[in-house]
Amino acid sequence: MKSLFDHAREKILRDEQPLAAKMRPRTLDEYVGQDHILAPGRLLRRAIQADQLSSLIFYGPPGTGKTTLASVIANTTRSHFVTLNAVMAGIADLRDITAEAQRRLGEHGQRTILFIDEVHRWNKAQQDALLPWVENGTVILIGATTENPYFTVNRALVSRSRIFQLKPLDDNHIRSIIRQALDDPARGYGNLRTRLDDDALAHIANVANGDARAALNALQLAVETTQPGPDGLIHITLAVAEESIQQRAVLYDREGDCHFDTISAFIKSMRGSDPDATFYWLAKMVYAGEDPRFIFRRMTIFASEDIGMADPKALPFVIAAAEAFDRVGLPEGHYPLAHAALYCATAPKSNSVMGFFDALKLVEKEREDEVPNHLRDASRDSKGFGHGAGYQYPHAYRDHWVAQQYLPASLQGNIFYEPGSIGYEETLAETIRQRRELQLAALQANGGTAAPPEILTFSPPDKAADQWLARAVSSLAPTLAAVRDRIFAARAWQRHDLVCDLSADTAALTWEAVRRTPEGGVTAIVSSEQHRQNLLEQAAALENLAQPRVIVATPDHLAALAHDWSYDAIIGRNCLSSADTRDVIARQLPQLMRPNADLILAENIPQLSQRLHLLVQDTTLPWLDAIRRAEEAIYANPDDPLVNWNHDTLRNLLQRAGLTVRSCELHTFHRDQLLSADQLAHWFSDAPDSFASRLLRAVPDCQPHLLRAELARTCLNRRIPWANTIAFIAAQST
Q1: Are residues 519 and 505 both part of a single domain?
Q2: CA-based nearest residue to 120, from 38, 62, 169
Q3: Which residues pair with 141 in a beta bridge?
Q4: What are the angstrom distances between the C-alpha of 585 and each of 522, 730, 734?
Q5: 309-313, 330-334, 696-700: which range is least confident on average?
Q6: Sorting pLDDT into bands at 50, 70 and 90, what band is 652?
Q7: Which of 364, 355, 263 is CA-nearest to residue 309?
Q8: Do both 416 and 286 map to the same domain?
Q9: Is the bond preceding 25 in cis, omega lying within 30 degrees of 0?
Q10: What is the Rg, in whole angstroms, of the alpha carbon atoms belonging to the chain?
């Protein structure tokens, strides 16, 4: 029974709580952020609302709401809620809690939820003592940890718990939390007259670095140390905010995930020859207080493992820099530290030293032996969180480099290093410039590709042929190049694949297929002898075996090609757009394909074509509505074979032909197109099938000549926005 002194002490503690504790959300509706686990409809939110919780582990950096989420559960659940802090509690406390939980369950049928804050602080014996009570249902565990639970929490506990990873809050979340504190009269400063300038709010949100507790502590310091003005207003300016929170706290634990993930990103950035990312991750480690000698040790290993014989001077250079650091000390020691990192990042790469480990394997032959996710240390928890997934190993690529991003998403495109024009650096400038351009291009093309398949064949490199093919595949217009790239991104290509290009008249896909299958073969289907001659003339730059096989074939004779080649992949553009040949082509395709072969097509969808009435800027013109109705009627005409089909039609067609459709996605491409007088005349000619004639058939009282006049006045010989929608279809043979 509590005494008056206990109540007085609790009141004092309650009144003197930090603002962050007072503002802790009490319900899910007050909780800010973590939408990936708490948005309406998410599993965790539904479980909390239904009071049907199983054991949970919340993992994330400080200030992201782990303890707060447990508090919300405590306010929501009908179960008895008990809290322990692993730093102060031990097995004796656990024994008392489980005994009470057993009694409560037996006498009242009430469950017990045990929240253990900083559960990773318990040693193995303490965690083992908890396991039987979780396993038999005496308690439901909710653990909170800033450390990776796959390595700091008992494996048996992990296997019996749902794990939810909480991420740092973004600036908008922090702003919302600060405004809540300013407006709340009971727990915050709603009873005070306060004004927080926008730039002060932005500063606190930015420097808090996703930590709500840090932001609220800064706000509390700013409000409670700022004297009110004569009118009683507490005015928090940028200067006050800067005094309240001056330095960003970098999340970094020398024994935890941040340590391993950051050093992993640093090494992979050096291996990827990205000096900008190398400087960034080095700066993060130095700023967080990492021991420079540890960084030098890792660079010493790197100089042999990843540079090796490509630059034998790298190893003595790094060792010399480490010795210089020991002599100079900090802060000047940052110069040799950065110098060594820059040398490693820009040096040519070779992993030939790995031959030593091949020798070891031979000796042992009798025994079978929020950093960006792909840069995280995959050696410890790739199964748990998928860290390291999608990382492309540079040594697997020509010149030991691949267009891969090493910086965080928010820093893409930042340049921290500009190579000079004297000495060794002069040889680096052009290479680094080209690689940065390729990295940005890869980012725009959706962030790189999946891991390449095992290479089963090899040919000696042919520089002349490679250069010619590189020019050929880079000569397409941007939209056509984007279409080609999406087609080739739809499968994992092997060097020995046999490929058939059904639409080789323009060779838009042919040369990329030739480039990707140097030990395979490409058949290019063209519609006329003239196209065949054109393609053969272009192919003359390649040796005979590397040239595509060019065949003139009509749609109804494609199956005749199956007698000698069966293809691993068939590709094409606008092959199924004609109603006259669509069914014929689809029925023949399976006859050309090997088992489990891929069909990848890009088909323009006329129903979704650019509408000309949308190019008219003045939407108040009285005749425009009739034009709009006429134009939409054209594309909705069920009797017109040009437009009475869509991507679903193609999907069903291929399925009827016996193929398994893996995906059928629409993508709209936007570009600026010059509107010429010839194009305008073509649209509005008197021909029976012209655009103007179709408009009049759809809505006889519309006035196409007025649309033509308006387009001539506002768009002629100018670049107009133009959109076309393409269906990308990927199917597979049985």
Answers
A1: yes
A2: 62
A3: 114
A4: 19, 16, 18
A5: 309-313
A6: very high
A7: 355
A8: yes
A9: no
A10: 33
- Kindly report, residue by residue over 622-635, the tens digit of the pLDDT: 999 999 999 899 88
In a domain, 508, yes or no: yes
- Which of these, 527, 525, 450, lies nearest to 488 by C-alpha position? 450
Q: How confident is the model at residue 472 (pLDDT cuts 50, 70, 90)?
A: low
Predicted pLDDT of residue 132: 84
**Is the domain of 483 the same as that of 354?**
no
615 in the same domain as 593: no
Q: How many CB atoms lie within 10 A of CB 90?
A: 14
pLDDT band at 310 (very low <50, low <70, confident <90, very high): confident
Q: How many domains, the chain?
A: 5
Beta bridge partners, 57, equal 143, 163
Whether residues 86 and 65 share a domain: the answer is yes
Closest CA to 372 of 277, 305, 251: 277
- pLDDT at position 202 is 83
Q: Looking at the structure, tell me whether residues 68 and 94 fall in a common domain.
A: yes
In this predicted structure, what is the pLDDT of residue 415? Answer: 66
59 SS3 class: strand
Q: Which residues contact 467 (CB under 8 A, 6 or more apart)?
A: none
Predicted confidence band of residue 385 (pLDDT cuts 50, 70, 90):
low
Last residue of a domain, one of 605, 627, 653: 605
Which residue, of 143, 165, 187, is where some domain finishes?
A: 165
Same domain for 94 and 107?
A: yes
Predicted local distance difference test score (pLDDT) of residue 569: 92
CATH of the domain at 40: 3.40.50.300
* pLDDT tens per residue across span 478-500: 888 889 999 999 988 887 888 89
Query: Which residue in this structure is represented by tokens 């991507």?
Result: 647
- Is residue 14 in a domain? no
208 plus 152 within the same structural domain: no
The 10s digit of each residue's pLDDT in 132-143 is 888 888 888 888
The rounded distance, in Å, linking the Cα atoms of 502 and 601 is: 9
- Residue 39 burial (10 A CB sphere; 0-12, 13-18, 19+): exposed
Q: Residue 617's domain spans which residues?
A: 610-642+676-717
504 phi, psi to nearest 5 deg: -90, 5
Kindly report the CATH number assigned to the domain that includes residue 181: 1.10.8.60
Q: 576, exposed or middle or buried, with CB in 10 Å at 0-12, 13-18, 19+?
A: buried
Please check the confidence at residue 457 and state whether its pLDDT lies above 50. Answer: no
Q: Which amino acid belongs to residue 625?
A: D
What's the distance, CA 259 to chain centroid? 22
- The CATH code of the domain that includes 372 is 1.20.272.10
CA separation for the pair 124, 128 (Å, rounded): 6
Sheet holding 660-674, edge to edge: 549-552, 521-526, 498-501, 567-573, 593-604, 719-732, 660-674
SS3 443: helix
Query: In the prediction, which pLDDT does 240 show?
Result: 75
> How far does Cα 12 stand from its chain's mean position?
48
How many other CB atoms are there within 10 angstroms of residue 733's CB atom?
22
Name every residue whose Cβ is closer than 8 Å to that of residue 544 and which is 6 or more positions away in sequence: none
Question: Which residues, other chains included, contact 418 with Cβ-Cβ below 8 Å and sequence gap of 6+?
Answer: none
Amino acid of residue 319? I
Within a domain: 388:
yes
Inside any domain, residue 16: no
CA angle, corner 375, sides to 374 and 379, nearest 5? 90
Query: In sequence order, what are the beta bridge partners of 59?
Result: 145, 165
Contacting residues for 597 by C-beta, under 8 A, at least 6 apart: 566, 567, 568, 569, 570, 732, 733
What pLDDT was estimated at residue 49? 83
Q: Which long-range contacts (CB under 8 A, 24 or more apart) does 175-181 make?
A: 175/201, 175/202, 175/205, 176/32, 177/23, 177/32, 177/212, 177/215, 177/216, 178/204, 178/205, 178/215, 178/216, 178/219, 180/23, 180/30, 180/32, 181/19, 181/23, 181/216, 181/219
Kindly state the tokens that stand for 197. 């300038």
